[in-house]
Every structure is written in C-alpha cells, then in structure tokens.
Amino acid sequence: MHSLFNCPKLSFRKLSLFSALIFLFSCQSEKPTREQLWIHIYHTINNEPLLINDMPYENALGQQYFVTDLKYYISNLTFIDNEEQTEYTLNESYHLVHVVGPEEYLIKLNDLPVGEFDQIRFSLGIDSLANKNIDQLGALDPANEMIWDWETGYKFLSFNGVYFPEQGDGKELIFHVGKDENYKELVFNLDPLEVPVLRVEEERYYDFYLSAHFDDLFKNPHTINFRTFSNTHDDSQLMDNFSHGVFTLDKIEIR
Amino acid sequence: MRKPFSGKVIVRLFSALIFSLIFYFFFFTPRDFPKEDWTAIPSPERNPITTPGVLLGRKLFFDPLLSANGEVSCASCHRQDLAFSDGQSLGRNGVSGNQLLRNAPVLVNLAWQPAFFWDGGARDLESQVFSPLTHADEMGKDLKILIAELNSDGEYTKLFKKAFQIDSISSAYVARALAQFERTIISFNSSYDQFLKGDTTLSDLALKGLKLYRTKCNSCHTEGFFTDHSYHNNGLDSVFNDQYLGEKLGRFRISRDSSDLGKYKTPSLRNIAFSGPYMHDGRFATLEEVLEHYTTGVMKSKTLDSLLVQKDGRVGIALSEKEKKAIIAFLESLTDQSFLSNPSFGEIEVK
User: Do B168 and B227 lie in a common domain?
Assistant: First the structure.
C-alpha cells in the first residue's frame, strides 16, 4: 500500500512545488495577464470561414479552387489623431499572418501610444526600407519562407492554391506578390464603430476585430481569371484587390 | 608668447611628412591589404567585419551541414583554385544533381560590388546567402532545421556568441558571417598589379594586349575591378525567351524594363584564365572562343551595346588574330597566384 507518510521526501517536494505554483499564480494575477492589444483576424471566403485544403471555393467567374497555403504581412500599425494632426507608428511592427485553419488569427502587441485616436492605419507588405535586405529577425526572418531565392525582398502575400478547370487536371495557383511599388497602406475610420474616438490609456486592454474577406482578392475591383492567370510575383492587380475590399475593421473592445 | 615656427622647422616638418607618405605607400601595398584592419573593406553598418566573424564565415563556407543532404557546401561550387568558380559551364553540384540554369561566377572583390547574380537580383551579400541555401538545386536547406542544428552544436553556439554576442543563432547571423568572410576574398596582386607598381615587367605581347584592351574592352571591363559594375548586352543572343523562370531575360527579370532585355552584369576579368567556362550560361570553354565571339559572333538586337557596333554599322570588335593573342596574353597577366593559393581563404578548423 502506498501512503503519503511512506515517502516523506517526495511529499515534501510535491508540497514545495505546489506552493511555488501558488506563488507564481498569485504573482501573475497582479501583472497584466495579456498584451495590451490583441488584433483578431477572421478569414473568410464567400462569407464562410476560410479552410485550408478542405473545400472548393468558387470565384466570381464560377471557377473552382482550393486554398493550400496562405500567408501575408501586416505592418506598421499606426494610431492617428486627426484633431491634433499627430500619429504614432509602433516600433518594429511587422507581423506575419499564417492562415492555418478557421480559427481567428491573433496578433498580440504591447507599447501602445497613450492618447485619443480617430483613425487606425496598417500596411499590407513591408516598407521599402525594411524590404532592402533580408538578413533580419522575428517576423522578417527568412526562415518564415516569405523570401524569393532569386531576388532580394519579401513576399507581401503568399497565396497557394489549386484551380480545377471543368475539364483537365488541376492547375497550381501561385500568387506570390512583393516589390516596393505594391506596398499598400489601409486606413480605417473609427467613426462608424461604437468607439468613434479610441482612448488609449495604460493598464487597459484593447481588442480589434478584423475580417479578411478573401473572395475579394479575386474580384474587387479586378476580376482574376485563373484560366489565364495562375502565377505571379509582382502583380499590381492582385495587390490592388488585396488592399481594397478584403479587410474590414468590425469592432473595437476596451477593458 | 611662443615664437612662430621658423622657416627651417617648416621645411623639416614638410620633408618628414613627404618621407612618411613615401614610406606609407611603399610598405602599404595592396599585397598586405587588408591584414586584420578590416576597416579598409566596405561593409554595411549592421554587419561590420570582425576577425571572429570572418573566421566563422569561413568555417560555414566549407561546411556541408548547410545543405539538405549534408554533402554540399558553398565551396562545392565556388573553389578557391578556380577563383571561386566551379569549372563547369552549367554545374550539377547541388543537392538535387539537376543542372543549374546559370554559370557559377567567380567570387572576388565582392565588398565593392553593388549587386549580385548575373542579373543583379541580390541587393547585398547578406541577402544573397539565402538563395543558394534554400534553392532546391543548390543546397536545398530548410532554414528552420539549419538553425535548430546550429543551436544544438556547442562549437557553433560558442563561435556565434563570440562573433555577434548572441545566445541564440538565427538565420540572419549565418548570412552575416558568410558575408564577412566573402568580403575578405580580395585579389589585387596579379602580375598586372605588380607591373603597375613597377615590381615586374610584362611580356611584349601582353603589353601590346594591354594597349588594345584599353581601347577595345576597358569601357565595360574597367581597370581596377575590371568591371564597370553595370549591365550590358554583349551580343550573345538576338532573342530572349522566358523558357525557364526568366534566367534568359537578363537584367529585365529584375528591372522589368524592356531596355534591359539580354543585359547581364559585366563580370570582373581578374583571374579570368582560371574561371572558365565563360558567360552567364558558360557557353564558351576558352578565352579564344570568347574573343572569337567579340570579333565574329556578336548578334544584333535592340539592346545590343552601342560599343559593339562599329562606325560602318558592322557589329562586333575588329581584331586580327595577332591582336586576339595579345589580348589573351594580357588577360593571363590578371592571374593572381597569391590569391588562388592564399591560405586565409582555405578550409578551416575554428574552435
């Protein structure tokens, strides 16, 4: 029979581990439990959650396709105060979004500027300064496989898929877009939201909820025909579409 | 108040200055260059050259750990005895064994080169490293695996810490170390250089070749680096098709400017006798074939360089057989034996 008393040494260890854990938790509850800002991104196609390698979607021309891999960069998150005509861009703000399933994608950030803001801006892609060389760290580490092997620079958007024509075999869709001229800034007015003016204070927590409607990537404003166009590395039409209807800022929550 | 300097003192100071200048230039010849004073070699601010960095880069350059199958290193395609080229027209030394689409160029005086690859697609040496590392027909390495392997190697973690003061290796530092070593691969001590300094003489044939060279070749392969660091169409082809991934389109592939179709980087001609086969696709095996191209093989196209069109409208460079021989004799004087056998560019055990 095992009894606690048979093994006083172990139980002492257990006890100390337990108290250490309690200590840890009690410490943590005083500190912030999370980063100051979480950006939640929901990816959809035709108003359904975007699934990887799962089901065929239909583009505006009725062409069927699969998504096999989807990655892109969001960068330079900026808080804008039009009244004071000031803006504040977060430091080292490069974020790689890798869509792997229907769950929301979370970007977690700290060091928000304190103040009142009526617009939020972020960019799709990497600004020309950071796009000059690729021996970089974090989101820009080449190990993230967002680089080309023949030309220096980052892929801003890496969309891989398969197009199924009515007849014949499936055809790979390789839409890898980069190049400085395709860097796009997106500005979101806060006035249609419940918080037309966002007050950022220390010790408060913020949640931005974004949707990314990827069907727009192939239709708004340029209609993409997979039969004639399935491979690119610098296409400005795709990047136009990416920066048009794809992203919406739906809600901001403050705690 | 102190007395102003007398004229005599000024003369003495002046002659001392002249003397020390002469002394400096006499002893500080490119032969000694760069010693351990790396400041003479240009490098980007984010990656200054240091001795531990160079040694680490040199170790990495020869290490097949950097390839998917553990058999291919940078040196597999860039051999010192061939001025860091590979001796093949289109090599098959990569992990897949597939034939590459471009000739492996020499690696020489790279610190002064503004862009890399035959079309200038890589903007600096650090960024260039990732191409051979990840290309399926070169080293095909998964960078995440490489970084895990390096971080679990006690020797490498020590060397990276020494070179960059980091506790955890990331791919950027692999690139920086390699770039530091590559910047030290310098050749300025050929017979031609020694001749310019008055240390040696060249044969009459080579001297005749030098004269011809200066009128016929120097505007592109400019003395000093023996390249103008620019892009030209030297008449190899008349049509440029995109059969592969654009490798045949020249600089156009990068600039997307139709006036760049068929233009390639002017290669340096230093150590040219050791770096054949020649041109971006290695189509010529010998220097004789190269000169035959310039005299009789130049093809017309919209982007053909105007220097290769003669006054009467004929294309190519007019050279007699004798003149071709003279130019080749001169090109051979660009061989730098001390470079080809310099022990500081060889494989190294650093601990």
Answer: no
